[in-house]
């Protein structure tokens, strides 16, 4: 009964010492969980046009060392994932955002390949759109609805949804390939830096 | 109730707010009907069955509600448009609305198949029934009215009522636009003004003289 009476802090420290220590992997994962969302949030601002590209450097440079790497990687990955054949505006902003961090030959090659894919897609999309519009117009005339006042809203049209979805599916392998290659390239470049 | 030619009028007689509906019967392929402003499925305050009542009244006139092929909406407010979604799902009917109303309508869960603007609308394949559509903003930005020259019928939505006009205090309302829209329509030769609500009257203003008196009243007492 001669033991020293321990303070609350000492008791807490003893308890904490008995807790299992985090592994290197767990520490890395926690940092990813903390700083990854910050990079993704900056990417969102760029994609929505709410952050000018010339202010990007100031945003990203708020983080340095390992934290900065995580933020930058998450930022670039988000921009790659946002590239979308149906959203030219977001895709343009994604490339502008990437260019603000990395500017090299492979990026420009990817950008040029994307433009080619987009051109093919839009050409085929326009063809399909015209064909669907014509087919639906015939159905409408058959039903007995015509005149200068009426215009089809194909965005809500089931046939057009199917056609567009099938077209996007055909282009998906090319789109995924370019996104994957670009992501891999950016990861290599930024981890060397 | 058959009003004139292929046109049937279904005035709302419930206690809660709902609109009058109008039907151009059998004018489309396979005798399908055109419904203008089907109203609420169920009125919001008193839970009166708007769509069910409309269907029963149509059946009473030997019109099959499952044979509706087109729903024309004068504007997107739910007391005119809510039942369009149910009719679309039940019958495969197309829904037509002015483009300026489409976004708000989508917030109510509605889907627009056809945008309808100012111009000519032909309904039917052989000797189609010809309707003139007027963009008539004021009560709402994309409000339309339908004029049937053959019978001199104006389907006025919520623009004109008996001795009254549509309200302009809801989002998108515009008193100046309402005045211009009414003034423009007053120049047409009209025998029937079919209003979007009864409001202490049948909602059907009948006879050229009575229609003129109504326009005069609006001009003299409400609009200027």
Descriptive overview:
The complex is a heterodimer of chains A (193) and B (224). Chain A has 193 residues and is mostly helical. Chain A has 2 domains: 7-101, no CATH class; 103-193. Chain A is 76% helix and 3% strand. Chain A is built from 7 helices and 2 strands. Chain A has helices at residues 8-18, 24-47, 56-60, 65-82, 88-101, 105-143, 158-192; strands at residues 145-146, 150-152. In chain A, helix 6 (105-143) packs antiparallel against helix 7 (158-192). The termini of chain A are far apart. With 224 residues, chain B is of the alpha/beta class. Chain B has one domain (2-223): Metallo-beta-lactamase, Chain A, CATH 3.60.15.10. Chain B contains 5 helices and 15 strands. In chain B, strands 1-2-3-4-5-6-7 form a 7-stranded mixed beta sheet. In chain B, strands 8-9-10-11-14-15 form a 6-stranded mixed beta sheet, with helices on one face. In chain B, a hairpin with a 5-residue loop joins strand 8 and strand 9. The radius of gyration of chain B is 16 Å and the shape is globular. Classes of the chains: A mainly alpha (193), B alpha/beta (224). The A-B interface holds A 140-153, 156-157 and B 27-29, 32, 69-70, 94, 96, 99, 102, 111-125, 128, 131, 133.
How would you sum up the global shape of chain B?
globular
**Total domain count of chain A:** 2
Largest sheet strand order of chain B = 1-2-3-4-5-6-7
- Share in β-strands of chain B: 25-35%
The largest pleated sheet of chain A is described as:
none
Oligomer: heterodimer
Level of helix content of chain A? Answer: over 70%
Following the backbone from N to C, one meets helices and strands of chain A in this order, namely HHHHHHEEH
Order of helices and strands of chain B: EEEEHEHEHEEEEEEEHEEH
Low-confidence stretches of chain B: none
According to CATH, the fold-level topology of chain B is Metallo-beta-lactamase, Chain A
Largest interface by Cβ-Cβ < 8 Å = A-B, 16 and 28 residues
Tell me the name of the CATH class of chain B. Answer: Alpha Beta
CATH architecture descriptor name of chain B = 4-Layer Sandwich
Shape of chain A: elongated
- Provide a count of the helices of chain B: 5
**Fraction of residues in H or I helices of chain B:** 25-40%
- CATH homolog superfamily of chain B: Ribonuclease Z/Hydroxyacylglutathione hydrolase-like
Task: Look at the helices and sheets of chain B and give the structural class.
Answer: alpha/beta
The whole-angstrom Rg of chain B is 16 Å
């Amino acid at each position: 009964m001669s033991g020293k009476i321990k303070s609350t802090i000492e008791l807490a420290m003893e308890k904490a010492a008995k807790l299992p220590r985090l592994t290197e992997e767990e520490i890395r994962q926690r940092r990813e969980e903390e700083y990854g969302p910050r990079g993704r949030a900056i990417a969102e601002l760029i994609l929505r046009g709410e952050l000018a590209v010339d202010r990007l450097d100031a945003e990203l440079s708020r983080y340095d060392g390992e934290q900065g790497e995580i933020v930058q990687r998450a930022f670039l990955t988000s921009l790659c994932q946002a590239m979308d054949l149906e959203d030219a505006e977001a895709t343009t902003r994604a490339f502008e955002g990437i260019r603000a961090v990395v500017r090299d030959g492979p990026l420009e090659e990817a950008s040029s390949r994307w433009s080619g894919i987009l051109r093919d897609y839009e050409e085929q999309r326009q063809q399909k759109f015209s064909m669907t519009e014509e087919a639906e117009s015939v159905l409408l005339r058959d039903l007995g609805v015509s005149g200068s006042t009426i215009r089809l809203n194909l965005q809500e049209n089931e046939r057009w949804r199917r056609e567009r979805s099938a077209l996007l599916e055909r282009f998906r392998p090319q789109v995924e390939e370019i996104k994957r290659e670009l992501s891999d390239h950016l990861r290599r470049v930024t981890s060397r830096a | 109730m058959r009003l004139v030619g292929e046109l049937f009028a279904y005035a709302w007689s419930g206690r809660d707010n709902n609109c009058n509906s109008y039907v151009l019967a059998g004018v489309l392929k396979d005798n399908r009907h055109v419904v203008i402003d089907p109203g609420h499925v169920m009125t919001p305050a008193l839970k009166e069955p708007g769509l069910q009542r409309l269907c029963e009244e149509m059946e009473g006139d030997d019109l099959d509600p499952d044979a509706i092929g087109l729903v024309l909406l004068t504007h997107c407010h739910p007391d005119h448009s809510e039942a369009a979604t149910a009719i679309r799902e039940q019958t495969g009917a197309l829904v037509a609305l002015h483009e300026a109303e489409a976004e708000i309508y989508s917030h109510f869960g509605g889907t627009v198949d056809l945008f309808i603007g100012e111009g000519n609308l032909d309904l039917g394949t052989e000797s189609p029934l010809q309707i003139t559509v007027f963009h008539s903003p004021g009560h709402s930005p994309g409000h339309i009215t339908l004029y049937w020259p053959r019978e001199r019928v104006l389907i006025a939505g919520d623009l004109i009522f008996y001795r009254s006009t549509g309200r302009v205090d809801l989002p998108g309302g515009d008193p100046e636009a309402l005045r211009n829209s009414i003034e423009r329509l007053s120049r047409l030769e009209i025998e029937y003004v079919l209003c979007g609500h009864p409001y202490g009257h049948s909602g059907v203003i009948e006879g050229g003289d009575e229609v003129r008196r109504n326009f005069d009243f609006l001009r003299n007492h409400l609009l200027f």
